[in-house]
Amino acid sequence: MTTVTSGNSLNNNRSSNNASPASFNLAEEPTPLIASPPLSASLSSSSSLTSSRDRCRRCQQLVYCTERIGPVKDALYHKLCFKCLKCDRQLDFKTYFTNSIDLNDKEIYCQSHVPRSGKGVFSTENIHIQNVMKAPKLNVMQKLDDRHTGIHLDSHSVSIVHAMKAQQMFQQGREKVSAIHKFPALPPDMIRAREEVRRAQKSLEEKQRQEEDQLFMKFRNARELEEKKIEQEVTDEWEKRLQMLTAKYEDDLQRKKDKTIEPELTLRFSKEKAELERNMTLKRDKKREMARKQLMEKEQETTHSLVSKFSKEMITLIQEKELAVLTENGVDDQRATTLLRQPPPPQPPRRRKRDLYQDPSVFEHVDQQAIAVAESEQTSYTELVDQLTYGLLTDLEKSRAIFRWITVKDLNAIDFQNNLAADTPMGLLRGIKYGTETYHTLFMRLCSFAALHCVDVKGHSKSVGYEPGMRIGEGKFTNTWNAVVIDGEWRFVQCNWGARHLVMSKDKKEADIAPPKPTREKIKYQYDEHYFLPDPDDFIL
Description:
Elements: H1 7-15, E1 22-24, E2 30-32, H2 39-49, E3 68-69, E4 77-78, E5 97-98, E6 108-109, H3 130-146, H4 161-171, H5 188-255, H6 262-328, H7 333-337, H8 353-356, H9 364-374, H10 381-388, H11 395-408, H12 430-434, H13 439-449, E7 454-460, E8 478-486, E9 489-493, H14 495-499, E10 500-502, E11 523-525, H15 536-539
Antiparallel strand pairs: 1-2, 3-4, 5-6, 7-8, 8-9, 10-11
Pfam family, one: LIM
Organism: Rotaria magnacalcarata
Protein name: LIM zinc-binding domain-containing protein
């Protein structure tokens, strides 16, 4: 344990026998090293160091420096305890609010539940000033009403009153009311239809999850069988070679009549046995690694096929539900059936990326929404995509939200437990734990819940180590990425490289032509805007 002692404490120790240096542990509680103070002084010192100011206001547990938030109104919180008092929504320094009405209230709230001052109420003693208080408001309203004067319509012209008001609003520079409505200001029938689609999605997802659980069970059994097979093969070979080595040792003992060399033969036998054990251990590990890679490739292909089938089922379900809503609302069959259109044939997009958007700042509200969703937990893909696409109307915004969620959520750093239930937040990404689901497979799955057509593409791309004019050999610069339909055109998305990239040295030898093998030390997690909808000539070879 490291002792932290200041210079002043050393001087005080030399001048007084009652003072003593102290060592600090992780809980910041000093432990006396030289002289023990009196019991009353020790209790008062301990109580002062572990006072309520050092404890979380919510759970009353000790707050460590690494997980501390605050002080907020002289109160500390754990990061996970920094939530709204009313709805338990996770907050941060940008989203929390305090009670400005009651200064004695030390709690924190979200924007929806923070106490606000209500409408003023006039008592019977102050009723005489009520008209005086309303005078400025009435004056403003009168000015607004004056702008609409000059038009008088009788009962015979009531049918054109809306058209006349629309012209007035247009002349005054105002937009249509329907154009400035913000989500979720939707009609009740549209909200009910949306909820019906979500319920159907949740039901289909539960059926798909059961089928996926059965597939994971097959994967687990196959891995266990392969592990037993490798263990049995290595054990049989070990016993066979050990038997041969023992027979050779015994034969040497019988042929050598000189008993003085018996310790030498025994020592050589022990060394050869230890060397054999090391070789067999290495051989077993290599077999395990090779079998693991082969099984993982096979499992990824099987999972990809299953997720592709799930995606088609989900998109078909959403389209059928939306078609039923359109038909119920009186939309003609020809227009309604266009909703069930198939994705376009594979071909390069007609427009460039800059034609879709000039600056990533146009997605600021989408990115903030995706980051907020990534900080919370969901138990189903339906719930996750519903939160990601909440209020987003275009395919571009929806694909952007899914892309940013995957790039923000560091899937490789998630610490999965062995006993994961399928309906838990971590169980939602259990495919990442088993290594059967990759970034592009997850992106394709989430796009289907947003009714976006998405596929994965295997080919050669301009990855790290590529130089213009370089000849591409067999198996070099192979990669897998996604293609998603946006505005009737296929667009590329590479979530893996959008979330992280390799860090290379500036000087490269001629012999190092092949791309470097990625390692934990060389991988840097940093968001890259380039890999969201890159143009084909900038991305593929």
